[in-house]
Write a structure and sequence with these properties.
203 residues; mainly alpha; two-stranded antiparallel ribbon; 7 helices; 68% helix; 2% strand; proton channel activity; potassium transport; ion channel; transmembrane helix; ion transport
Length: 203
Amino acid sequence: MMEARLLSGDIGKPRVEALSDGLYAIALTLLVLELKLPSLGEAATNADLLHALRQLMPKVLIWLLSFVVMGVLWLSQVRVYGLVHSLSRTMVRLELAQLAFVSLMPFSTALVGEHGNLSVAAIVYASNILAITLTGAWRTRELLHQPRVHIQALTAPVLRTLKMRAYALPACAAAAVVLGFTFPGWNMLAMVPMLFIPMRTHA
């Protein structure tokens, strides 16, 4: 197997997984840095603090959405990696492209948290997630065309789940992009169905 991997240019899964897990962890941690209370001074009252917390709620909600959506995307990736023992060169390139978009999530989250009522911010944020899901879908397509990297033959239920997720996740993000032109802020609701898309990757 090692000789075949060298000849094909495939890369062992553990190294790519370690890079991916590390970058997701960093991006998820950076999301919370935007949750900052303004300086209230020593004379602040409970009412002042409650008002500041209420003012922070839009950013808290977008932080929560980003954390949950990124968690779903990471878990989807984990399920896919459970099916392979190595990654083809194309899969690795797509993984790196996806991680580049993942690293932008703290920026797009901060942008929409600060200007969530503006269509540009809403579209940039949704487009960031769309890019992550599209590279993931492309990677899944490549996986399906490279049986040599499979741990075992993929069953019909697994194939159906992989294909459904490859279409459904980008569809939710694309809907959020389109709705962002006319319903900034509310367009994020289009990504809620991501939470209910099946992830089963075993028979």
